[in-house]
Amino acid sequence: MSVQKFFGADGVSLERVVINGPQGASAEVYLYGATITSWKCDGKERLFVSKQAKLDGSKPVRGGIPLVFPQFGPGDLPQHGFARTRKWTLQYAEEHGQGVVVNLQLKDNEDTRASKWPYKFDLLYTIDLTATTLSTIIKYENVDSQPFSFTSLMHTYLRVPDIASTTVTGLKDVAYVDKIKGGGDLVEERDAVTVNANEDRVYVDVPGIVKVNYGNESIAIRRFNFKDIVLWNPWAEKAAEMSDFADDEYPQMICVEAGTVASKISLNPGQTISCGQILTFEEGGYDAHDEAFRIPILFVPGNAGSHKQVRSIASASATAFIELAGNSPDVFDQGQIGYDYFTVGLNEELTALHGYSILEQADFINDAIRYILSLYPETRAKYRLPSQRTKFALPTSVVVVGHSMGGVVARTAFTLPNHIVGSVQAIFTLSTPHNNPTASLEYYVDKVYSSVNSFWRHGFHNGTLDDVSLVSIAGGSLDSMINSDYTYIGDLAPPKNSLSILSSGVDDVWLSLDHQSILWCAQMAKKFSSMLLQIMDARQPSQLLPLDERMSIMRRQLYSDWERGTNAVPESLTANRTTNDDYSYVYVHEDGAARLMPEDMKKLLSGDHTDKAGLGVALHLLPVNKATSDSTVQLLYDPRLFAIAHAPGSIAGYQPVFLGCNRIKVESNGTKPETRVTCRAIPAPLPTKLPMRRADDDPELPLYALHYMEVPVGLLGQFEFLGMQLPAKPGAAGFFHATIVKNLVQLESSPSYARLLRSLTIRTPTAKSHIGSSTRTRIRLNVPESPFFVFRATLAMRRSTSSSQFMSASPRLSPIIRQSDGRRFESRFWYDQNSVDLAIHGRGAYLPSDAITNAEDSELKSAGQWDGLLIDVWADPDYYTGFELALRINWYSSLNRTIKRYDMALLAMSFVWACLVMLHQLRTWNAGVSLETTPSSKCRGGLATPAFPSCLTSIERLIRNGTLSVLLVAAVLTPILQRVVAHLMGNVWSPATLASWNNLFMGTRGSGWVLGLVPALLVIVSLGFVALEAIVLTAICSLASWAVADVSGRFESTRKHWSRHDVLEAVSEDGRLKPRFVKIPVRPLIATVAFVVFVCTFVPYQFAFLVIYMAQLFTAIRTMSHAYLAAPHSATTLTPQRVLVSDVLRDRARYQLGLLLFWTSSLPYCAPELLVWVRNLSVMWFEDAPSDHNLANMAGYFALRLLASYHIVPRLTFNVTERVAPSRTAWWLRVMTYAFFGSAVVYAWLYSIRRPYILYSVANAISAWLALVQFAEFPLRLVSPVQKRILSSSALLGSRTSSPAVTPATSPVVAEFSGFARSAKPLATLAASRSDDQLDRKLR
Q1: For residue range 135-186, what is the model confidence (pLDDT) as tens digits?
Q2: How confident is the model at residue 1084 (pLDDT cuts 50, 70, 90)?
Q3: Which of 215, 792, 921, 1204 has a CA-to-CA distance to 1195 between 20 and 30 Å?
Q4: Can you give the pLDDT at residue 1039?
Q5: φ and ψ at 292, to 5 degrees?
């Protein structure tokens, strides 16, 4: 947000201030008259300024908000005083939490004091701009020595689309003066004031808020110390008289002016008063009451969500209610009084990453619900049913709408002690991951999910939640923020209480929606609001219809399925009808197919039937007496065909009435008998809407869906005809097609995935004639419920070559494809597309781990049964005779879906590889072998020197030695073994045990046998991630160490700083050891104390781990730079001492880098808490979870970091100098080390894919063990039985080097005993000993 001050380029325009506010809001203020000439809000200009307004200072600006002071209207001063013609001074402008505030000032001067109002004054004008409001407040101060009086007003010109459709509310029963009619006291009797002529009225002492309403928007005017409202519009005659107002502009403006003009404001010397107004932009504009009395709805935003996200749904709900109230005057008698939308501001907290925030928000939600319900006892009592004297019921519950994690917060509120039982009976969630957290990176998130889901499953089982309905709507494929598999709630609630659906299957939406657009998508908001309106009932304490009724309505509103139910037969249709009395005409389609176009219906209505045209309905008959009982009547029609009989807004909702008819013979005056039919209404299935955009459709308007129905002939019983009651007069477009199909075309295929690797072609049989050809064809693919694979389907239609009279030049509709399955969770439509991607969303791989999972509830057990992938194709049967459908696997999209579903598995697999890499490094180090050529081996003529392997070398060896193959085989066999064991033990184990067994590894539900291939793929991908991490870390450390070494070589001070531990200083120029003393590590001790204090009090342990990680990174860089400085770079520096010291430092650096790679796998589990902590600090929120300050969660990392900075891990193997077997303690340490890493690999493999946050603690435990091993090195040295021989060997080795001997007397006590690690202090001794070629060969 900013404030700018500038001059116009033409040199005439006046100075103005441009204010840029939040969310695109802006305003412009001319310093001439302090006139606000622009206010843009929600992307539109809200103020009117005439295009002929003078902006050169010659006269006041015609439009905006001119200021009237100290005189209103004509008088001793110029019209409306002098404030609007004086130049104001810009005092200051500043931003605040919600917007921008600007202050302008006007003081008296010689001109004003020379006028007929000669007082001294000081006006301070404050303009405050936010996203939806414009506040204009003037502080009037009397700085004169005598009192004065004045009138003042804000002459607000509001821009409106059309003055004819604009209303002003809030003025009823207010006295006013009509200046056009010459004055006189009148009283406004209208609820909504309209303007249709020249108006100039002064409404006196107006109470409350005044609103200007146009369309679906309104501007609310709230006043402070301004008593009156002036309403003005010049209309055509006055507009023509004004030079600065165009003749045709009056329909686009209305002046609603807040001020005090009927009386005067008086101020004594030194006295002040502040007056002003707040203009608020509102969507909906229907509610003229500020108090809550309708049905309460609470919106809960999701992860990092804003309370403002409710605006789209609230606006759509207000619009829908206005339409409902306008079309149905009795809606209030039915308890449909609209919704009051409440929302909560949760500081945009990251609830998806922090379980403790979920609990805090849920606790706040319960308090908010208690407060909302407390508002209604007083306000609801004021309103009664219009047709009765009874009052609306007092609300006892609130409808909750949650987006994303807001849905989880809403369900969590039920589990807390402060929850009011019965206060929430309906929860609607949008894109909410119910089953599992999207990112299981934190313990509390998983704990909250487990406890909440268990509460809800048992709540429906024990009756706690019997009256609660839970609806989950998800975005589907386009939602990249969450996995839509997790939105399925069939495991949490029985079908009688729950509904799960993806937006692509919702009628009139038919789209996949991303995570945010599900809130503001116009089609979704409209459909959602329509559903909410239909389930409301303010006559009930719950404010909702009973559970069964509202669930039925919600299914009817959301599901796009002709199998969802049948229509009830209207009572008016239960009586028999005869053709002559009740229909404009009756037509029998003898060929068994009805094809109606507008021109056909016009011909049928003309002629003999003209006299009955006024009846408005016609009867079309299809003979069914010869059809078999398993035949079906397929109906497909475009509702535009019936546009004449129905209002345009209700065309899409029209459907035919179906009748069973029999032929009767009636004698007529003794002449030949006249054939008549008698009919009775029959129930018929609900229609399915099919989306299709036609060539002449407006792309800006919603789709007019086609309607499709299937009526089984078996419903007709003994009737001879199926009667279809249709409007007699057709619309300008559309069609109706009905045909009897003997056998519905349904093809079944059970392809293997190996078959789909190439291509599978499914061909429909070619229809022999147009009569009886199917409109809809269904293909059932018997494939497992696998959400991994995406199938590319290519449709090729076969065009008819016959010359039938019904053959049209072009098809009435392009082919429509629908994907669905028996779960009714997901369906998708495509129209006018020949190539589509078929994919499903599963129910989540993991089962609930409690006995309620398989409760003996037939409805619960039958819900969500998988019966294969269904593909329906609709096509014009008169134009096409069949089609071919080619299916193959889309590998790229399949890989994307696999990674998206098991993104957390990559973290677990990466940890497995990190453990294996570290284990291989330790085993190689313990074995005392070298896997690569080192500088010392070159110095020794190519002989290898034992070395700590690098990360990349270990990764290469793991690939070569078969470890990769073993993991691939394990990845394939693990889910197969799970299936086999579960099948064998299904009748032995309890449901909870079976669920726990299923939830090992990656879970097996909704995966099929193909799951064995998915983990194998993830094993390879995770290996690539670990290799990439190793490359990046090695590159960073190498480049940084090279840079540090280069700088250290150039600058002596820098070299001393980075090389104060340089091991070369331990060797004198003649090769002898310098006397060294062990220094107390003061800085590490200070750092330890600081860490303990900060972690216990302020910072979370995750931040401490990040500091440890960065310190380890800098330590590795420093050690590598030491190695670089110590390495010989020319023949003159190629000495054994220098070479071997470089090797030692290189080994230590590789060990530190290996730890860094191992710890990298723990970084993702610290990121959520760090983000939440930083976010909370930004809003001054300091409350953390208690576990965030647990020292044990970082102790292992911290201890190993301190020890690894100066020492490498000891070699737990045979003594490399004397071939002496290690002590029993060393042997146990080695076995336990390998066991730790092996257990970590197995645990991560089986358990951490679902709960990867556990791996942080596992890595911490391993780090603590390695620290213990390194710390155990020191006491073991003191008790080593070969210490004296090693010391004597060191003296002997010193005599064999090219440098003078190193005696035990000058050697440090610490040396390499029994293969344990070397210290930085005795490296000269080690260098001397390793430079002996003979001993080196002996060791090998």
Answers
A1: 999 999 999 999 999 999 999 999 999 998 899 999 988 999 998 887 777 8
A2: low
A3: 921
A4: 92
A5: -85, 125
**Sole residue written with tokens 């009056």:** 250
Nearest residue to 913 (alpha-carbon basis) of 969, 947, 963: 963
Does residue 531 contact residue 426 with C-beta atoms inside 8 Å? no
* Cα-based distances in Å from 521 to 284, 357, 479, 525: 17, 28, 13, 6
- Chain centroid to Cα 268, Å, comes to 59
Residue in the structure block whose two tokens are 């398993």? 630
Radius of gyration of the chain (CA): 41
- Report the range of poorest mean pLDDT among 344-348, 731-735, 1010-1014: 1010-1014
Among the ranges given (550-554, 690-694, 994-998, 1102-1106), the one the predictor scored with the smallest mean pLDDT: 690-694
Number of C-beta neighbours around residue 1013 at 10 A: 15
Count Cβ atoms below 10 Å from residue 726 Cβ, excluding itself.
Answer: 24
Please give the distance of CA 329 from its chain centroid, rounded to a whole number: 38
Residue with the two structure tokens 């290469």:
956
CA distance 619 to 588: 8
Residues noted as catalytic: 155, 257
Tokens at residue 1175, please?
A: 């976010």
The residue whose two tokens read 């501007």 is 219
Per-residue H/E/C for 584-627: CCEEECCCCEEEECHHHHHHHHCHHHHHHHHHCEEEEEEECCCC
Question: What's the pLDDT tens digit per position in 450-475?
Answer: 999 999 999 988 889 999 999 999 99
Distance CA 274, CA 101 (A): 16
Using CA atoms, how far apart are residues 1085 and 1081, in angstroms rounded to an integer?
A: 6
User: Are residues 725 and 617 in contact, defined by beta-carbon separation less than 8 angstroms?
Assistant: yes
- Distance CA(852)–CA(1011), nearest Å, equals 26
Burial classification of residue 784, based on how many CB atoms lie within 10 Å of its CB (0-12 exposed, 13-18 middle, 19 or more buried): middle
Please say if the pLDDT value at position 1099 is more than 90.
no
Distances from the Cα of 61 to the Cαs of 134, 137, 244, 344, in angstroms?
A: 19, 20, 9, 42
DSSP state of 980: H
Structure-block tokens of residue 508 = 């009139």
Cα 491 versus chain centre, distance:
22
Distance (Å, whole) CA 340 – CA 336: 12
What's the CA dihedral at 178, 180, 182, 185 to 10 degrees? -10
In 3D, which of 492, 499, 297 has the Cα closest to residue 402?
297
| 962 three-state secondary structure | coil
Q: Model pTM greater than 0.85?
A: no
The pLDDT-based confidence of 1135 (bands split at 50, 70, 90) is: low
The residue assigned the tokens 């202050």 is 103
Q: Which residues pair with 689 in a beta bridge?
A: 707
Distance CA(1129)–CA(1135), nearest Å, equals: 11
CB under 8 Å to 149, separation ≥6 — which residues?
264, 265, 266, 267
Gap between the Cα atoms of 778 and 563, Å rounded: 14
- Tell me, what amino acid is at 360? E
Measure the CA–CA gap between 454 and 795, rounded to whole angstroms.
45
- pLDDT of residue 1174 exceeding 80: yes
CA distance 367 to 167: 38
- Measured in residues, the chain has a length of 1340
Q: Any idea which of 127-141, 253-267, 1123-1137 has the lowest mean pLDDT?
A: 1123-1137
Phi then psi dihedrals of residue 1061, to 5 deg? -110, 20
Residues above pLDDT 90, as percent of the chain: 33
Q: Tokens 């600065």 sit at which residue?
A: 244
Q: Where are the alpha helices (DSSP H) in 89-244?
A: 110-113, 235-241
Name the DSSP letter for residue 953. Answer: H
Contacts of 1079 (CB under 8 A, 6+ apart): none
- List the beta bridge partners of residue 481: none
